[in-house]
């Protein structure tokens, strides 16, 4: 109520949007504002401020200005930041079941993936995260992953034998590459370009946007379009902040998030297509990169070999057979 009593200069400041809000929501993320995640965060900011009629002041901090993903979960617990959007891998220790999204060839296409995220499977995973002291709001896309390497075209699963592939820290990804006879090596994302350039590793798996923006295509000779795995994010909120909101503002947050998620999916799809075109242009212009788009029959062969790892994650403490089967059976 004190805010209502402020007059003069205070009201002028309030009119400029400073100090007039009842709540400040700091949204921390690690990518640039022109990425799908960055653009969706800005959309969410505008939409929530509109819906709440300025009662919530959303402040977006891109490019790790506040926290890196490795530190943001702790900051959310402390309510030092109110919202973040880390990749699934950052939840590995607290909710290992999110590794469901790492399973190779689990999703038939992007529509099937979204149906799984919007189904009871997605709800169950979000509930697991919420039970650990966060409020899980929604899943945001990066895209499906492709493989690149410096040795040979990957057409059959046996072509990967003996190649060293960089992976994120993930038991699923370790098993995925072992299944095709490759050697998985956990390595920070920031070190991948120089490791490829120096031949420390032979290849890597990533989305088109990561392959393009990090210029991995410049230090690789072969790229196979496999869409074998998925990279995504989970938008989470500080539980302390969420609990401080009245019901009408909670409803505003949910609506703004629903709309921002729909936008983010569009942005991610557009960017994936756009940046693959740029990689193709580079390949055509220079002749230094050979791109192979696998046929449905070739994909089936990779899937047959890689999905043999699923039973290794049937234990509910890892992922759980029920979650894996429910995802497969989602229509």
> Percentage of helical residues?
40-55%
Please write the CATH class name of the largest domain: Alpha Beta
Q: Number of helical runs?
A: 13
CATH topology of the largest domain: D-Maltodextrin-Binding Protein, domain 2
What gross morphology would you assign? globular
Order of helices and strands: HHEHEHEHHEEEHEHEHEEHHEHH
Provide the domain count.
2
Spatial strand order of the main sheet: 7-6-8-5-9-11
Mean pLDDT over the full residue set: 93
Structural class call reads alpha/beta
Radius of gyration: 22 Å
CATH-defined architecture of the largest domain: 3-Layer(aba) Sandwich
Amount of beta strand: 15-25%
Low-confidence stretches: 1-17
Look at the structure and name the CATH superfamily of the largest domain: Bacterial extracellular solute-binding protein, family 7
Q: Termini distance?
A: 51 Å
Count of beta strands: 11
**Main sheet summary:** 6 strands, mixed
Provide structural commentary:
The chain is globular, with a radius of gyration of 22 Å. Mean pLDDT is 93; it is low at 1-17. By secondary structure, it is α/β, with parallel strands linked by helices. Helices cover 43% and strands 18% of the residues. It has two domains: 2-90 and 111-141 and 232-271, 3-Layer(aba) Sandwich (D-Maltodextrin-Binding Protein, domain 2); 146-230 and 272-328, D-Maltodextrin-Binding Protein, domain 2 (3-Layer(aba) Sandwich). The protein has 13 helices and eleven strands.
């Amino acid at each position: 109520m004190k805010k209502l009593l402020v007059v003069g200069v205070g009201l002028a400041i309030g009119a400029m949007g400073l100090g007039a809000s009842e709540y400040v929501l700091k949204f921390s993320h690690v990518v640039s504002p022109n990425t799908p995640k960055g653009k969706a965060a800005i959309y969410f900011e505008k939409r929530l401020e509109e819906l709440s009629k300025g009662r919530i002041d959303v402040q977006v901090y891109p490019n790790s200005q506040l926290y890196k993903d490795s530190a943001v979960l702790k900051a959310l617990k402390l309510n030092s930041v109110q919202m973040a959007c880390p990749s699934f891998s950052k939840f590995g220790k607290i909710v290992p079941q999110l590794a469901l999204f790492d399973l190779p060839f689990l999703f038939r296409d992007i529509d099937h993936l979204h149906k799984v995220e919007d189904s009871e499977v997605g709800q169950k995973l979000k509930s697991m995260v919420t039970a650990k002291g966060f409020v899980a709001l929604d899943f945001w896309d990066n895209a499906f992953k492709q493989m690149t390497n410096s040795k040979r075209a990957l057409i059959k699963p046996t072509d990967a034998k003996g190649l060293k592939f960089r992976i994120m820290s993930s038991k699923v990804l370790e098993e995925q590459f072992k299944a095709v006879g490759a050697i998985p090596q956990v390595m920070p994302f920031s070190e991948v370009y120089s490791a490829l350039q120096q031949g420390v590793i032979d290849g890597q798996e990533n989305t088109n946007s990561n392959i393009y923006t990090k210029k991995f295509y410049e230090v690789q000779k072969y790229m196979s379009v496999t869409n074998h795995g998925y990279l995504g994010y989970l938008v989470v909120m500080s539980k302390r902040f969420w609990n401080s909101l009245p019901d009408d503002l909670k409803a505003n947050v949910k609506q703004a998030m629903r709309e921002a998620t729909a936008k983010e999916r569009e942005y991610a799809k557009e960017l994936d297509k756009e940046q693959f075109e740029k990689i193709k242009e580079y390949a055509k212009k220079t002749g230094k990169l050979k791109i192979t788009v696998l046929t449905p029959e070739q994909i089936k062969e990779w899937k047959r070999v890689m999905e043999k790892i699923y039973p290794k994650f049937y234990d509910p403490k890892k992922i759980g057979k029920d979650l894996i089967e429910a995802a497969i059976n989602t229509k």
